[in-house]
Design a protein that fits this description.
The chain is of the alpha/beta class and 243 residues long. The chain has helices spanning 19-26, 63-74, 95-102, 120-125, 145-156, 167-170, 200-203, 207-225, 227-237, and strands spanning 2-7, 31-36, 49-50, 60-61, 82-86, 106-110, 131-134, 192-193, 196-197. Strand 5, helix 3 and strand 6 (106-110) form a beta-alpha-beta unit. Helix 3 (95-102) packs across helix 5 and helix 8 (207-225) crosses helix 9 (227-237). The structure holds S-adenosylmethionine. It is found in: Cytoplasm.
């Protein structure tokens, strides 16, 4: 899979050389390219921003710079990529969206800064490729780079061959294997630590009992923290979802 990230702060993406994503890159499973948007800026100051029409505080990233960058980056491979645009004004990032993107051959992520990007950039790109806005949550970051890190990491771990044991992703919180619910609490050795014991059922070797215990704890946890996920499960599978 190929992912291009366009940003005015390429150094912000340095962690993508480390850990799981770094290994996936070195193993050739992930072709990750980071581009400095200023390469496409013209003029002595290499400005990428200007004052917004209609007034208001802050600056906006300009259409000609982003247009030139996206034209070149999206013409550098086969077919059209899917363009992802981080913005607090977009629909939220979910594991379902991540899973859909993980089977795409090519993603491009456009990182905004300042007050964001001239709206015509997305309108224009949508004439040639699928475009999706994505929000990390109901808060405002200073730029899209952190969102790009999040998307790249979440997508990469679903790319075949990236996780050592692919089954672990199937049983994560939000995954199909857990019915889209939160994962049950987990424990490892030692059995007793600071007078706290690992639940007995997990030590007994009865796989059916372990599966039931995990499902019950998953339901409890989800009901307490994210009741909306239970509603979504019922909406998908009907009232028999818990059988
Ligand atoms: N004026 C914009 C608004 O109110 O919707 C906020 C712009 S924000 C200061 C600058 C950039 O940070 C955005 O263009 C986007 O790339 C990124 N950003 C900020 N918050 C984000 C969030 N919750 N999710 C994804 N990206 C975000």
């Amino acid at each position: 899979m190929r992912i291009d990230v366009v940003t005015i702060f390429p150094g912000y993406l340095a962690p993508l050389d480390d850990a799981l994503v770094g290994r996936a890159r070195r193993a050739g499973r992930l072709d990750l390219r980071v581009h400095d948007l200023r390469r496409w800026a013209t003029g002595v100051h290499q400005a990428v921003d200007d004052a917004p029409y209609g007034g208001g505080p802050g600056m906006l990233m300009t259409a000609p710079v982003w247009g030139a960058a996206l034209d070149e980056v999206t013409a550098s491979g086969e077919g059209a990529p899917r363009l992802l645009v981080p913005t607090p004004a977009g629909p939220p990032l979910t594991q379902q969206r991540v899973a859909a993107w993980a089977v795409e051959p090519w993603l491009v992520i456009a990182c905004g800064r300042y007050e964001g990007i001239d709206a015509r950039v997305l309108e224009d790109a949508a004439r040639r490729m699928p475009v999706e806005e994505v929000s990390l949550g109901d808060y405002v970051l200073a730029g899209g780079e952190v969102a790009a890190l999040v998307v790249v990491e979440a997508v990469s771990r679903l790319v075949p061959g990236v996780l050592g044991n692919p089954a672990s992703a199937e049983l994560d919180s939000f995954a199909e294997g857990t019915g889209g619910l939160l994962e049950a609490p987990a424990y490892t050795r030692p059995e007793r630590w600071r007078e706290l014991d690992v639940p007995e059922v997990l030590r007994g070797g009865n796989h059916g009992a372990v599966a039931r215990w995990r499902r019950d704890r998953s339901l409890e946890r989800t009901a307490a923290v994210r009741p909306d996920l239970l509603d979504a499960l019922v909406a998908r599978h009907g009232p028999d979802a818990f059988d």
